[in-house]
Automatic annotation (TrEMBL), chain A:
Domain Pyruvate phosphate dikinase AMP/ATP-binding: from-to ranges: 14-124
GO molecular function, one term: ATP binding
Top-level lineage group: Bacteria
PANTHER family named among the record's database cross-references: PHOSPHOENOLPYRUVATE SYNTHASE-RELATED (PTHR43615), PPDK_N DOMAIN-CONTAINING PROTEIN (PTHR43615:SF1)
Protein name: Pyruvate, water dikinase
């Protein structure tokens, strides 16, 4: 343990992150995205050892075994642990790209300010950039109330309402108010100056696309999924893996009459199934799962065989959306009213990025929408 | 002898896929976080103290 702490000395002022590195994860057809545990920890012997145990223990979790079985794989049983200093990024996110002849021919980026944890765990929808080659087709903004950042020991001792410095990619310093902290992560209120500004700027987007090309070439991949961060030192690749299934048609839609609109994380149609909230009991097989965030609990429920998934938050590149794509389960994210307005037991038709009662099915199929009907009595 | 593997020397057999991929990126000159890996097979008993 001393060896880890000696290595971390001077490298990790904001603590360490222990991440899984299993022989069978990040495969071409099975990512195990978000199924293993990652732990942010301060650099003290007891806490680091606890973090290593927690990460290693996730190798034998039921959800990993279920997912491996669903993908026709044997679970790894044990895993290596990757230990990194926690970065304090100005921006972070995920990039998925198809790379051919030294260029990203189709790509999608989701970006947030601060750490990407809420984005990959599906509790925060990122700003979405979609493009082909050098052309950006669309930028879908998102609202982000809080910035999660690794806190220094001094920052973590400050009470809510105090101010600290938020990281930027330029020389300008910006102060942000502390909302609170949890498990070594500081939550800052997004400064008003940033609330209406684009998160990822065009030159930063270019840098990320160049990185994706370099990473795809280094790993001999044509389809790649990258977790990235941008600090004052520039962009960094936190993780790179094959993109098991490309993302399609994940643009925001106008809600159809009597229905709900969102982002199509996994296009596809599922009809005639009762809606079921994510809860302590596994939803019945064939139900349309309604959940708040696409977190680990939702990933476990996906393995129970729902017809489709609708979530109130999150984006198409969140971990559980990746799992849904691999399992071929239609998935609509970022439907804020889903939990409040879709009654349990209602028959839902999920079709791409929206939802409504279904009188005009062919139209809905064509435009990619999700609709609902009341259950037959 | 060190238990920790530097990223540069990571292969997927003992370091897992994530670390092996980051090692390849580092060897290709791409920016990745300074990292070390505790390989498979290491247990709590391997940590002195």
């Amino acid at each position: 343990m001393e060896e880890v702490l000696t290595w971390a000395e001077c490298r990790a002022p904001s603590g360490l992150i222990a991440r899984s590195s299993a022989p069978g994860e990040d495969g071409a057809t099975a990512s195990f995205a978000g199924l293993y545990t990652s732990v942010v920890t301060p650099c003290t012997a007891g806490r680091v050892l606890e973090a290593l145990r927690e990460v290693r223990a996730s190798a034998s979790s039921p959800v990993v075994a279920q997912y491996a079985a669903a993908r026709g794989l044997a679970p790894d049983g044990e895993l290596a642990v990757l230990v990194q200093p926690v970065l304090r990024p100005a921006l972070a996110g995920v990039l998925a790209a198809v790379v051919r002849a030294g260029a990203c021919v189709g790509w999608r980026i989701e970006a947030v300010r601060g750490l990407a944890g809420p984005l990959v765990s599906g509790t925060q929808t990122g700003e979405i950039h979609i493009g082909r080659g050098p052309v950006t087709d669309s930028v879908v903004p998102s609202s982000q109330a809080f910035l999660p950042l690794p806190g220094t020991r001094e920052e973590l001792e400050l009470p809510p309402g105090e101010w600290t410095t938020a990281p930027t990619t330029g020389r300008a310093m910006l102060r942000a108010k502390i909302a609170g902290s949890c498990a070594g992560v500081l939550h800052l209120r997004t400064p008003a100056e940033w609330a209406k500004q684009q998160v990822l700027l065009p030159d930063q987007r270019e840098d990320l696309l160049h990185l994706a090309v370099g990473a795809a070439q280094a790993l001999s991949l044509e389809q790649i999924d990258i977790e990235w961060a941008i600090t004052t030192d520039g962009p960094t690749v936190l993780q790179a893996r094959p993109l098991a299934r490309p993302v399609k048609d994940a643009t925001a839609s106008t809600p159809p009459a009597g229905g709900w609109g969102g982002l199509a994380a996994v296009p596809g149609i599922a009809t005639g199934s009762p809606a079921a909230r994510l809860g302590p009991e596994t939803p019945p097989e064939g139900a349309v799962l309604i959940c708040r965030a696409l977190g680990l609990e939702a990933a476990a429920a996906l393995l129970g065989g729902p017809a489709a998934v609708v979530s109130t938050t999150g984006g198409p590149l969140s971990h559980t959306a990746i799992i849904a794509r691999e399992l071929g389960i239609p998935c609509v994210t970022n439907v804020p009213a889903a939990l409040d307005q879709i009654p349990e037991g209602m028959v839902l038709e999920v079709d791409g990025p929206s939802a409504r009662p279904p009188p005009s099915l062919p139209h809905a199929r064509r435009t990619g929408r999700t609709r609902t009907t009341t259950p037959p009595s | 002898m060190s238990i920790l593997l530097p990223l540069m020397r990571c292969a997927s057999l003992h370091a897992g896929a994530k670390a092996a991929a980051l090692g390849r990126l580092q060897r290709a000159g791409l920016p990745v976080p300074d990292s070390v890996v505790i390989p498979t097979g290491v247990t709590d008993g391997d940590w002195p103290g």
